[in-house]
Automatic annotation (TrEMBL):
Record bears the keyword Translocase: no
Pfam families: BON
Keyword Transferase: no
Protein name, per record: BON domain-containing protein
UniProt domain BON: residue ranges: 86-154
PROSITE patterns: BON
Signal peptide: 1-21
Keywords from the named record: Signal
Length: 166
């Protein structure tokens, strides 16, 4: 008896295409960017999502990170060839500078650091505290830019992605 294996082989070749697992939608800090909270005085403040990305978002971001990371060095503004390499070393001095600001304990403030940029996220009680935090972060050596994304109080819609609504 003669069997034809071609139909079976064709079926087996098609199975991996239809049964392929989808990339996880789990969000992770793929690039290990510093993300930390410096105060927790306003418990109703929306918690930032931080640098969490899905696998697919991470894949799209990887190319741009490589380009942005080297542009600082190519422009002669960094001594390291990748601006993202500064970030872990900036975390402790940025946290210390922010914690030294009078009144910080009355707000809920988080920090994300990417390519020497400091993103301030969270809630504070006064515009003056917002300005003081921005100045304190800018004063840290090697910080290139501070992006203030703070809000007054906890009632506004946050200007940053949140952990419950990315």
């Amino acid at each position: 008896m003669r069997h034809s294996f071609l139909p079976c082989l064709a079926l087996l070749l098609c199975l991996p295409l239809t049964g392929r697992a989808q990339p996880s939608q789990e969000k992770k800090n793929w690039f290990d960017d510093p993300f930390f909270q410096v105060s927790a005085g306003l418990p109703d403040c929306p918690v930032p999502l931080g640098p969490l990305l899905t696998f697919e978002e991470q894949r799209r971001e990887a190319h741009w990170r490589a380009e942005r990371g080297t542009s600082c060095w190519l422009a002669g503004q960094c001594r390291d060839s990748n601006a993202y390499r500064y970030d872990k070393d900036l975390a402790a001095p940025v946290a210390a500078a922010l914690k030294a600001v009078p009144g910080i304990e009355s707000g809920s403030v988080w920090v994300v650091i990417q390519r020497r940029w400091v993103f301030l996220q969270g809630c504070v009680g006064t515009p003056g505290l917002m300005r003081q935090l921005e100045r304190a972060a800018k004063a840290v050596p090697e910080v290139e830019t501070v992006v203030p994304m703070l809000q007054l109080g906890t009632r506004e819609t946050p200007r940053y992605p949140t952990a419950d609504k990315p």
